[in-house]
Sequence to fold (232 residues):
Amino acid sequence: QSALTQPRSVSGSPGQSVTISCTGTNHFFVNYNYVSWYQQYPGRVPKLVIYDVGKRPSGVPDRFSGSKSGNTASLTISGLQAEDEADYYCCSYAGTYTFVFGTGTEVAIL
Amino acid sequence: QVQLVESGGGVVQPGRSLRLSCAASGFTFSAYSMHWVRQAPGKGLEWVAVMSYDGKDIYYAESVKGRVTISRDSSKNTLYLQMHSLRAEDTAVYSCARINKEYSSGDYFDSWGQGTLVTVSS
Fold:
């Protein structure tokens, strides 16, 4: 399965909002609503911030939100904070137990 | 709490083999489908392989198909990844990850190990 496409980097000032896109052309991405997003600091384990397109695990700030339309999923971080500077990966269930990750996006705080 | 601890990584010459292990604790291992995910230095996450909770379903990424074998030993609560014919491009941190639902293919990863580094170099 081809990796889902994400922008290499996005940036914003503290307090602003940024949106990361995740685009896929495979049928599973269009038809399933099993898109998750992971935050990863350098050398650290990925942390789930969004699952099932737009659901937030407990403990994740409501500044993080997710959506999906057609073949593009999006992660929006509102009210950017310094601690949000990290890499973010989308991930989609691809059927028959398999998954595919996005190419990853570096979020930089200006 | 859920704990996943990988081991078995190291430096290996191209063409050689290596077996990675992932020791699981804190949950009913036999009830969960388990995955291997890798991350090359400075690169993104790549899904590698999955074995279903009952061992009946096994799938691999195209990039490793034919060169790796995933297995599990529920009596030892351990997941394995046997890798053969290793290439430089297999150099990565290999992590095991648990899916979110019991007896299911699941829809996201809810637990990850710290990973074990495999370096393929002569």
Remarks:
- The two ends of chain B are 40 Å apart (CA to CA).
- The first strand of chain B starts at residue 3 and ends at 7.
- Chain B has no helices and eleven strands.
- The mean pLDDT of chain B is 96.
